Amino acid sequence: MASWTTGSADLVAEWGLDPAVDYLNHGSFGATPRSVLAVQTALREEMEREPVHFLGRELPARLDAVRARLSTFLNADAAGLVLVPNATHGVQAALESLDWREGDEVVRCDHGYNAVRRALVRLEHRHGVRQVAAVLPFPIQRPEQVVEAFAAAFSPRTRLVIVDHVTSATALVLPVAQLVDLARSRGVAVLVDGAHAPGLLPLTISELAPDFYTGNLHKWVCAPKGAAFLWVHPDWRQRAHPTVTSHGYELGLAAEFEWTGTFDPTAWLAVPAALDRLEALGLDDVRASNHALVQEGRQRLAHALGVDLPHPDDPTWYGPMAAVQVPWATPADGPLLTARMYGEHRIEVPFTSYDHRSFVRISGQLYNRPEQYVRLADLLRSWR
Ligand SMILES: Cc1ncc(COP(=O)(O)O)c(C=O)c1O
């Protein structure tokens, strides 16, 4: 039993969020507790007292320590782990590391993230690589349906499969272990886009052993913005490169990735502070509490909107985020609905979309309370 209550005054005060806003969108950019930001501020002050000493002499050893801590948290061997600014960089570095030939195909999920789809369009322009969508049935009932959808999208030309560990628009947790097995059985490389997964799910990356795994630490680990990682399988460690080349080219993963020119590394250095806070609260308790908020919230929303839930009510399918279809909205309405909820009602919640369908996606974090989802559901009922 956790020693705290979600949404209690003490927990709310740990974040500096605007009290006038019902903030139901932790998923987009995360939100960082004040205590972690204080650690980052202290690090910045230290850096600015003697920038050459901090960046030029001390940084590599400090980053080694961050990587070591992260390696335990992610169950990912530190030799394959590098810090990157965000999952977008991680995905791009993996894409750049393959030696593409015209006509190669990349399989990705139809719920996939727009920026990744755009990166694949660029790959098409540069190398003639084609992207092929695995079309998931949605509503969905069984993990095997996901595997079947991916298998159906493979062809002899498939070189890479991109698996969203947690989908963005629909907040669905995909069965990554089965999808990695599928890719292996077809001799295809696999990149897991785990933008939302760290903190949200327990991870055992070395055991999963995809070719590449990237994940954000600024979302559900609550680190400062600009903190993410890429893990590279031993088979790729000599061939993986960041998108920007600097002094460390061909000097090993850490040297290449972790200095791509002058930057502020304090978000990375504050990651252990974020992990300390989550671990002190109890990661299992945090996950269970956030899931319970969203579980109740999505039921209320589905009832208010008069729709069925898109997947079983089982934690293997979703964590502290869930999406419910908005049957009367189109994807084009999304930005307007998001703006109206915020502008008129001070509720920060995204209206997402994929495949001509519109969804409202809720997040649950320690600063949230059940009443906030009731308020959202009541408004949506009145908008029907
Ligand atoms: C599935 C997925 N991939 C990639 C990203 C990109 O994350 P970032 O903007 O931190 O690079 C997101 C962001 O929400 C995402 O949901």
Identify every distinct bound molecule in the structure, by name, code or SMILES. Answer: pyridoxal-5'-phosphate
Q: Helix share of residues?
A: 40-55%
CATH superfamily of the largest domain: Type I PLP-dependent aspartate aminotransferase-like (Major domain)
Radius of gyration: 21 Å
Tell me the domain tally. 2
SSE run: HEHHHEHEHEHEHEHEEHHHHEHEEEH
CATH fold-level name of the largest domain: Aspartate Aminotransferase, domain 2
Strand pairing plus helix content: what structural class? alpha/beta
The overall pLDDT, averaged over residues, is 97
Assess the beta-strand content as a share of residues.
5-15%
The main pleated sheet reads as:
7 strands, mixed
CATH class category of the largest domain: Alpha Beta
Taking pLDDT < 50 over at least 5 consecutive residues as the criterion, the unreliable ranges are none
